[in-house]
Task: inverse folding
């Protein structure tokens, strides 16, 4: 049986200053490492505010190669603290080709690879199709020193297919770096239900795949209402669900926090023995899922 491992989720606020965000994220990751975290994950696009609230071509200047300058800095931290890192970045792949990407660094500072966000939303204040090309690396797993991990980024979390494929690749924990929050005008009426749906879908991924699900969200308000940008109130609530779907640790909605959670592969093994969803899958019958819609005439 594989050894237990400990993950850390860093829930922080962000500013418009990338250098400041990197410095503060590094500080919090060091704190997580000091508390025993071996694999540490930051929220989606931690290097800046969530800039997709508007369509502004000048914001492409925030992008960088991956690996690149930021991963170089963080690889030193990984090596120093002997921790693996999962970090979400705005990747500049080529002129006019950009991705929403997670880099995975091992505990010796080496670059293990990257996951590019597959599902790209286009909703009010989430104008990601303006910035990001859909991912083309599939659903890889990464063997860190401590555990085999997978990644899904924000909008990916609403699609069961990505989490299932990631789990089938052997992931012991799936990280979901996220930037999700309330439209100020909707919070009173829909806020509680939206948050509960978000929690539920992650717990479902944990249950149906028999894995640890670790969702890490940003927190705080970002926007400029006086300039016509109503902004978003990011709801925090980062949490870890075990393979039985139980929430074993959860952060608050309105403050920065670090969660440190021990994960036990034996729990996943026991859960899958009692809920053998992977055993009983009818892989011979799932071809229709490859179609956009099942028309009656087809």
Result:
């Amino acid at each position: 049986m594989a050894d237990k491992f400990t993950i850390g989720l860093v829930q922080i606020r962000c500013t418009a200053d990338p250098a400041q965000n990197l410095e503060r994220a590094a500080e919090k990751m060091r704190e997580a490492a000091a508390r025993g975290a071996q694999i540490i994950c930051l929220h989606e696009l931690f290097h800046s505010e969530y800039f997709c609230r508007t369509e502004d071509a000048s914001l492409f200047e925030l992008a960088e190669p991956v690996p690149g300058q930021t991963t170089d800095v963080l690889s030193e931290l990984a090596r120093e603290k002997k921790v693996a890192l999962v970090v979400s970045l705005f990747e500049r792949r080529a002129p006019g080709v950009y991705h929403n990407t997670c880099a995975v660094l091992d505990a010796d500072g080496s670059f293990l690879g990257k996951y590019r966000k597959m599902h790209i939303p286009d909703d009010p204040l989430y104008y990601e199709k303006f910035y990001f090309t859909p991912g083309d690396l599939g659903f890889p797993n990464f063997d860190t020193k401590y555990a085999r991990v997978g990644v899904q980024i924000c909008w990916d979390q609403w699609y069961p297919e990505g989490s299932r494929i990631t789990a089938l690749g052997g992931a012991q924990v799936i990280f979901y770096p996220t930037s999700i929050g309330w439209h100020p005008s909707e919070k009173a009426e829909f806020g509680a239900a939206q948050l509960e749906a978000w929690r539920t879908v992650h717990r479902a991924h944990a249950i149906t795949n028999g894995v640890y699900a670790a969702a890490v969200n940003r927190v705080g308000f970002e926007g400029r209402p006086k300039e016509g940008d109503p902004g978003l109130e990011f709801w925090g609530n980062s949490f870890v669900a075990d393979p039985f779907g139980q929430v074993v640790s959860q952060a608050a909605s309105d403050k920065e926090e670090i969660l440190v959670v021990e994960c036990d592969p034996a729990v996943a093994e026991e859960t899958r023995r009692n809920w053998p969803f992977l055993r009983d899958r009818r892989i011979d019958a799932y071809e229709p899922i490859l179609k956009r819609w099942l028309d009656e005439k087809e």
Observations:
- Residues 187-209 form the longest helix (23 residues).
- The two ends are 47 Å apart (CA to CA).
